Amino acid sequence: MPDAGITMEAAIPCPTQDKRFTPKQKQEYREILSKCSMSTINANKHSVEAYHIRNKYMVDNASLVIAVLSLNSGGAMKTIENAKEQGKEVVMLQPE
Fold first, then answer.
1. Distance (Å, rounded) from C-alpha 66 to C-alpha 34?
2. 31, pLDDT greater than 70
3. Rounded to whole angstroms, what are the CA distances from 5 to 8, 38, 63, 89?
4. Cross-strand bridge partners of residue 68
5. What's the distance, Cα to Cα, between the start and end of the chain in Å?
6. Using one digit for the tens of pLDDT, what is the confidence trace for 34-56?
7. Which helix (H) or strand (E) covers residue 25, if one does?
8. What is the mean pLDDT of residues 75-94?
9. Domain residue extents for the chain
């Protein structure tokens, strides 16, 4: 299959992102990371600001934003609004 030029990057808010994950979540997290072309850590320590920096980084560097939103408020919604303000195409997926 030809390379479609699609890459998957893990934008990680901080090195301890998975600190509070269950063992199963940590395994899933590592499996996802192993499928990424690259990963970027956006802050040195866990904080609310680290997530804001990560979210801004994702939008700034995306050509397409795919979002799964379960609430109409919070960081995810603000990230989607930021993407739309930048004129990015946003595809919304419905959570199960």
1. 20
2. yes
3. 10, 14, 12, 17
4. 93
5. 31
6. 999 999 998 899 999 999 999 99
7. helix 23-35
8. 92
9. 8-45
